[in-house]
Amino acid sequence: MPDPTQNGLFLPLMEDFYTLQGEGAHTGKAAYFLRVGGCDVGCYWCDVKESWDPKLHPLTAIENIVNRTLEHSAKTVVLTGGEPLIYNLDPLCKGLKEKGMSIHLETSGSHPFSGQFDWICLSPKKKSPPIREIYPKANELKVIIFDESDYAWAEENASLVSPDCILFLQPEWSRMKQVTPGIIDYVMQHPRWKVSLQTHKYLHIP
Q1: What percent of the residues of the chain are helix, what percent strand, and what percent coil, each to the nearest 5?
Q2: Which of 19, 40, 101, 199 is the S-S candidate for 96 at Cβ 3.0 to 4.6 Å?
Q3: How far apart are CA 77 and CA 38, in angstroms?
Q4: Average pLDDT, the chain
Q5: Helix spans in 43-159 (H)
Q6: pLDDT tens, position by position, 44-56
Q7: Domain for residue 2, yes or no?
Q8: Which residue segment(s) compose the domain that 88 sits in?
Q9: Residue 132 backbone class (left: φ over 0; alpha: ψ -120 to 50; beta: rest)
Q10: Do 105 and 115 touch, CB atoms closer than 8 A?
């Protein structure tokens, strides 16, 4: 039986919701979030593990997804996961663009690129590093800091993005108290980096 997601006309939509962007360069901006199911990276500290298995989430027609975004005021859509680039994102982006939406992507960069985006947040993971083609496309690089080894990983990825890419270090939520002082020190010593916090968790919003 053919995979109904192959042509990009259906996606396993885990959830969609209207909220504020909580992280990175667009923190505080109203946006409609589309979270697709399916991820083969499997970070042990992932806070959305229920997104990993795409079979748990209903296949939803692209037309329906686009129409749901139009029910809200914001003209910014954030496509997240899971790992969105597992799928062909061309039809979804085309449909959203036709409605005048600004489209942001949150990705590990571990799968071939598809779609058309106004902003790309690359959050690389050691278990499944980004494909090289994604680096020059990234508008922001967001590296999660869990322990000391992640600083070297951050610099390795920073050497591959474009010069105007915004660089962020973000504490892993469960180790916030342990790692945040080190991140502050690192950014002060390496000021091309900025600190990103998961402000939505402080605000108790999705």
Answers
A1: 35, 25, 45
A2: 101
A3: 19
A4: 95
A5: 62-69, 90-98, 149-158
A6: 778 788 889 999 9
A7: no
A8: 10-203
A9: alpha
A10: yes
pLDDT digits (tens, 9 = 90+) for 61-91: 999 999 999 999 999 999 999 999 999 999 9
Which amino acid is present at 24? Answer: G
Residue-wise DSSP of 152-170: HHHHHHHTTS-TT-EEEEE
Q: Is 4 within the bounds of a domain?
A: no
Euclidean distance between CA atoms 78 and 85, whole angstroms: 13
Q: Give the CATH number for residue 186.
A: 3.20.20.70
3 lies in some domain: no
Per-residue tokens: 17: 């919701």
Are the C-beta atoms of residues 82 and 106 closer than 8 Å to each other? Answer: no
Per DSSP, the residues of 23-49 read SGGGTT-EEEEEEE---SS--TT-S-G
Phi, psi of 149 (to 5 degrees): -65, -20
Structure-token pair, residue 100: 């005048």
Burial 147-186 (b: 16+ CB within 10 A, else e): eeebbebbeebbebbeeebbbbbbbbeeeeeebbebbeeb
Structure tokens at 131: 């494909």
* Domain total in the chain: 1
Instruction: Tell me which amino acid residue 137 is.
Output: K
Q: Torsion angle of alpha carbons 112, 16, 170, 129, nearest 10°?
A: -20
Structural domain contains residue 198: yes
Q: pLDDT by residue (tens digit) across 158-174? A: 999 999 999 999 999 99
